[in-house]
Amino acid sequence: MSGATRVSGAQGTTAVPAAGQAVVPCRACLSGEDLDWLGGRSVSLALDLPTSVTVHPPGAAGPGGGGAGDWAGEVWAFLRRRLPGLGPRPPAVSTDSRAPAASGLSSSTALIVALFRAFTQAALPADGDPGGWPVPARTLAQWAYEFEFARFNGGGMDHLAVIAGGLLLLDGRTTGLPEIRHRVDFPAEWSVVVLDSGTRKDTRDHIRSVRAQLATGDARLAAYRKRTDAASGAVWEAVRGRDLAALGAAMSEAHSAMRDLQRMSTPLLEELRSLALRSAGLPLKLSGAGGGGALVGVCPAVERAEVVARLRRALGPVHPAARVIGARAAAGLAPALAAAPVPKRPAPAPR
To answer: I need a labelling partner for 280 at 20 to 30 A (CA). Which of 37, 66, 184, 343 fits?
Structure first.
């Protein structure tokens, strides 16, 4: 979700107030859409296309919730029910986002997590350390997940991805946050290329449709889960083995499952994938719920500028609304979250 009203730019064109700020990466899903709440493995990668939220001191110039829409007030209300002593109204904030909106790169989650982080940091400083965690990272992830689940009924991949950062192998749960099975740094010799189609995806309708499939025991959904879980395993092993060709093939398999079994792709997205393969030799995979949004691919870092240039030249005459963005992996807010023990699920109540 890109901020429509901005006070501070992504490049720091104005002074950053010390009252509270959070800068949160977005994420690309390399395999495993919906498996974070259906059950199964998924692979996420945090990207350096950040969303920032700055909390302004009382009386300072700045719009209340500037660029954050209704989220600022709703996040503040959520926190007031859990943190005694917060005032009735949120402080003024300004936002900025480098991730394309409604693109399947979790820009909305990044904004929500940034609001939680900036508000708690400003309201509850950790022993005078502005970079500390007055609310533990795991708690923040859980709260952000609960907040977003109440609105979209989805999973928790995005919240863990932008907080823990790096490359995550997640084991999905039907309720609650997924389990982080492994976290590794993405190979420094690789870069990510994002091709934003310029068409918006619709998460809410997608999740509603998939939950209806789940309720009826849809065979195609079961096949999708099995095929995509295997693709996630192949993606993870390809990265660990630093085998770029195998990674492209595994991501393509994950995309094919999305398209063939769950109809997440569109004719435009397929045309963009074919164009990228022809013009730059780059296999692309749809990231996110589908029906629009962004495609992602991985190439050698030394070739990124040329790959981006080739794609832009090929897209310009036929798809001027599409954008090509080069990106790198991002560390996340709290990489140590991946090493923290996962809370045990409560035992079922006796019948």
So the answer is: 184
pTM as predicted: 0.89
Q: How far is CA 304 from CA 282, 287, 301, in A?
A: 11, 19, 5
pLDDT digits (tens, 9 = 90+) for 294-334: 999 999 999 999 999 999 999 999 999 999 999 999 999 99
- The token pair at 203 is 């998460």
Tokens for 343, please give them.
Answer: 């809370």
Q: What residues contact residue 238 under an 8 Å CB cut-off, 6+ apart?
A: 244, 246, 247, 249, 250
pLDDT(66) > 80: no
Q: How far lies 328's CA from each of 28, 50, 142, 166, in Å? A: 11, 11, 26, 10
How many residues does this entry show for the chain?
Answer: 351
Distance CA 60, CA 287 (A): 39
Q: How far is CA 79 from CA 115, 126, 225, in A?
A: 10, 17, 35
For residue 184, the cross-strand partners are 167
